Amino acid sequence: LVYIQKSRGYDSRQALMMADIQAIVRVVKAANPKTLVFVDHCYAEFIELLEPPQVGADLIAGSLIKNPGSGIAPGGGYVAGRADLIEEISQGMTAVGVGRHVGPSFGMTRSLLQGLYFAPTVAASAMKGAIHLAWLFHLAGYEVLPGPGDPRGDIVQAVRLGSADRLEAFCRAIQSSSPVDSFVTPIPAPMPGYDCDVIMASGSFIQGSTIELSADGPLRPPFDVFVQGGLTFENARLGAMKALEAMASLEDKD
């Protein structure tokens, strides 16, 4: 099994594009046609014209509180890909002999399908917000990744802030722009799996939803903040403007 993470995580690399995944698949299959290629597709659904199974990946998986859920799905995840593999996975996920025929349960079917229905439109709003933020901070002199005109393989926009104070102020500004819990002040804290404190801002209708406007980053050099989501462009734009104002306020104090 070859595992591919399409999005960047807390790395400074660009998100993989579909052409990159296709090239990896070709190399893997040439070496051993039986090797399965699995793609972690979080943050990347509905961003490019093609999805990984269309360029040769055997399986993809992601979260329904990210792009495919549109801030409507209350939780869960998905797996998609080759029919024979999905059948095997479904037997392990539910019960042998029942498999995927159970379908979504616990009264969530409507929310899951409604989220999926709106997902392309919501993902487009998040992309529009990311590009706006990239231009805004680029023009203000900050290093942004991807650049305003660069190809994009996911909804994540990184800004290199250069200091812990800026990172914390940025996240406070995003939190204050949120439709839920805008009065809350995010603070850095230890998190399992990380070697430093992490700060996260997210005032979302669905807890933990990162297709809704959110920002986070590890408190270590170069103090990059990772911004994603925005159910509407207007909310994403407000967050970007308030974040830039927060940076200007810090510079005035300096």
Describe the structure.
With 254 residues, the chain is α+β, with helices and mostly antiparallel strands. It folds into 2 domains: 2-108, Aspartate Aminotransferase, domain 2 (3-Layer(aba) Sandwich), CATH 3.40.640.10; 115-253, Alpha-Beta Complex (Aspartate Aminotransferase, domain 1). The chain is 35% helix and 16% strand. The protein has 5 helices and 9 strands, in the order βαβββααββαβββα. It has helices at 18-31, 83-93, 109-139, 164-176, 233-253, and strands at 2-5, 37-40, 59-63, 77-81, 143-145, 157-160, 198-202, 214-218, 224-228. It has a 5-stranded antiparallel β-sheet, with helices on one face. A hairpin with a 5-residue loop joins strand 8 (214-218) and strand 9. Helix 3 runs parallel beside helix 5 and helix 4 (164-176) packs antiparallel against helix 5. The longest helix has 31 residues, at 109-139. The model has no long low-confidence stretch (mean pLDDT 94).
